[in-house]
Amino acid sequence: MERYFPFQSDPLPYSYVALMPRCDANTLYYHHDDFYAKAVYELNNLVVRHRLTQLSLRQLLSEDINLPTAQLDRLRNAAGAVYSHQLYFDGISCKAGQPPFNRLTEAIVTTYGSMPAFQQLLREAADSIIGSGWVWLAAEGNKGIHIATTENNEVISLDSLTPILLLDMWEHAYLTMDHFNRAGYVDAWFSLINWSAAEQRYLSALGANG
Q1: What is the biggest distance separating any 2 CA atoms in the chain, rounded to whole angstroms?
Q2: Separate counts of helices (H) and strands (E) for the chain
Q3: What are the residues whose beta carbons fall under 8 Å from the beta carbon of 162, sequence distance 6 or more?
Q4: How far apart are CA 27 and CA 131, in angstroms?
Q5: DSSP 32
Q6: Which of 39, 56, 85, 167 is the most exposed place for a label (fewest CB within 10 A)?
């Protein structure tokens, strides 16, 4: 469902302690109720200031907007943070487990050889980010799936790609629990992927029904 002004932070679909021991309650609270909520607040202020309240969240990220570069960068950063965090939190399940067999995991194994090989590529992608950013698994319609990285709060091209999985590589997501062990954080996140939600996004990208 598309989002329009006033933008709101989605409530967590699980409790603050539900992800322990893979993520502690304090980290999850500050990530969701502080960083994410502040991005929503800033985005609402910016769209009002620039008289862009008629645009959807996706339009704010993908359409040409006539603003000075510095102001446009700030707007895109806030919109990207809101969009990405919504996908990130929605993509996590409080029940750890092995990936199921479905259309998405079948595509992952076909593309990358095996789930362990895919997980290793996610680790490498996360480690390649200098500073902060995001790791994406995206579908290009029925043309296949791709791992991509973006810096800061940039998003992938939403006109041609559908995000399937999204991993937050900002330090506030993992530093408290995993310090600088990025690989350990990636593995913890991988064990908590909401494969059902990811499958629905993949089927939507294919133009199929759930």
Answers
A1: 49
A2: 9, 3
A3: 138, 139, 140, 141, 201, 202, 204, 205
A4: 19
A5: I
A6: 56
